[in-house]
Write a structure and sequence with these properties.
disordered C terminus, alpha/beta, 3-stranded antiparallel sheet, 507 residues, 7-stranded parallel sheet, elongated
């Protein structure tokens, strides 16, 4: 992940709106990008809640603190809070820094004193503290002592390799609490999958600061994910983290930052993922219909998310009735029974309606006896000419009946789906100008039986949107063109259904 300066400014604004206390902006002495960020931040960031923090390290081993360029860059960054990293594991001091333990402690004292003398509040990141404590607790605790004596404001215990287990945290935290008087922070990496659990345990044991990243971004397997930590502390332990009224911003913030980083938010992300409060089993949905808290550990609206009911071969009657209600449809008993069987048959063929909400809506309408009145496809044809070079083009022809009129349209595209999309638009847009606002946002193909090779059944999913809504359709076939055209035409039908509904006519 490589963010531009503009990206970092956008992330910082989102974090400030969310209400975090500190935003670490980067290492101003390490590279031009981070230096540019702090220069622009002083002019362009108007933070209301958070303090901007500059990151750096202690002075070099056997170096002069007063001429250390990295420390001077922290002072020159213009921020009042800095975070510096110091080795807290004797193994690293000896083999990475190649210096003595005494010099390592002097590096901490000198650096913290230098920064505090220049008006900075210093957070000391004790790097590899948990590994260091297990190897040599005397030295690890001495690093904290040196920082406290020199004027640090917060001592942060870092699990830099991410190997600490929850069972190890209490004893180490207890020793630290007995030794130091400053506020304690923690910084857990997720290499053992325990970063969130370790952070929550540390707070139970007195830590007042948790360092991490929204969505758990970070090197290797990532840092502690601040989203579930904030939600758990705030909603389950009634510990103030961000302003309480901002908790409902968690979902939008997580998704916004995911867009900025261009790393899609995993649907299974706790609290904020699209699947976090999604239910498909008939038993679950039936219970939720009676009591919303039956299968949800919190009210999803508290974190800005919402319940979703998706339909699959496991669907029960209640699932379909809830989904139909969301669409403004009233399923009869007979329609529900036939639809349940139809869904199971189609999913056995390879269809997937949990994400294809558009195709599901059409199935529901058909179960009620509806037939789409907008157009009828007589036939379609796709040809590709050429073999090499950038001039390779695909041509599609579609023949459709629209309100009693036979229309033949031909269009070129950079592939079969693009060409079919353009030809179908050309055939329909004169009669239905509202299609101009509809766009094809994403196209996915999955091979369902890989053992069949190129003769395999494939499933196509196409995401559409207009100025108001989004929907997804699906098609399944051994012919990828047929599967694609089926999903494509359903997407066009849904666009016209939504237009008719918006304009007040019953589709």
């Amino acid at each position: 992940m490589a963010l531009t300066v503009e990206d970092k400014l956008r992330v910082a604004r989102q974090l400030d709106i969310l209400g975090v206390q500190f935003i670490e902006g980067g290492w101003p002495g390490a590279n031009p990008k981070d230096a540019a960020f702090f220069t622009r931040a002083s002019d362009e960031l108007n933070l209301h809640t958070a303090q901007l923090v500059a990151f750096g390290s202690t002075r070099r081993a056997n170096g002069d603190v007063n001429s250390d360029p990295n420390l001077q860059a922290l002072v020159d960054s213009g921020v009042t809070h800095v975070c510096i990293v110091a080795k807290a594991w004797d193994y690293h001091v000896v083999h990475a820094l190649r210096t003595s333990l005494e010099e390592a402690l002097a590096m901490v004292r000198d650096s913290v004193s230098f920064l505090t003398n220049h008006g900075c509040h210093v957070l000391l990141d004790a790097e590899h503290f948990f590994d260091g404590f297990k190897d040599n607790p005397t030295f690890a605790l001495s690093v904290l002592d040196a920082a406290e004596e020199a004027g640090a404001t917060t001592l942060v215990l870092c699990d830099t390799n991410g190997g600490t287990l929850p069972s190890e945290v209490p004893a180490i935290m207890s020793s630290v609490n007995e030794r130091v008087g400053l506020p304690i922070g923690v910084h857990f990496h997720n290499d053992s999958g325990c970063a969130i659990a370790n952070s929550l345990i540390a707070v139970d044991l007195g830590a007042s600061q948790v360092q991490g990243c929204v969505n758990g971004y970070g090197e290797r397997t990532g840092n502690a994910n601040l989203v579930p930590i904030i939600a758990a502390l705030s909603l389950k332990q009634e510990i103030v983290t961000i302003p309480p009224h901002n908790l409902e911003l968690l979902t939008s913030t997580a998704r916004h930052i995911a867009e900025i980083t261009n790393l899609p938010l995993a649907p299974q992300s706790p609290y904020v993922g699209a699947s976090a409060f999604t239910h498909k089993a008939g038993l679950h949905v039936s219970a939720i219909a009676r009591r919303s808290d039956a299968y949800e550990h919190i009210n999803p609206e508290l974190v800005g998310n919402h319940s979703r009911f998706v339909v699959s071969e496991m669907a029960g009657r209640q699932t379909l009735l809830i989904k139909a209600g969301e669409l403004g449809l009233e399923l009869t008993d007979d329609a529900t029974t036939s639809l349940l069987q139809r869904l199971k048959d189609l999913e056995h063929q390879g269809y997937h309606f949990e994400v294809a909400d558009g195709s599901l809506e059409l199935l529901m309408r058909h179960a009620l006896g509806w037939t789409q009145p907008y157009f009828h496809v007589e036939s379609y044809r796709v040809t590709t000419d050429g073999y090499h070079g950038p001039e390779l083009l695909t041509e599609a022809t579609v023949k459709v009946q629209v309100r009693g009129q036979r229309i033949i349209a031909t269009a070129e595209g950079n592939g079969p789906v693009h060409a079919l999309d353009q030809a179908l638009r050309q055939a329909l847009q004169t009669t239905y100008p509202s299609l101009a606002t509809m766009g094809l946002d994403d196209y996915k193909v999955r091979v369902l039986d890989t053992s069949s090779g190129t003769d395999a059944v494939v499933r196509v999913l196409i995401d559409f949107s207009d100025t108001e809504t989004q929907w997804t359709t699906t098609g399944v076939s051994t012919n990828i063109i047929e599967a694609s055209f089926s999903a494509l035409t359903e997407g066009f039908v849904l666009a016209l259904v939504k237009t008719s509904t918006t304009e007040g006519s019953a589709p």
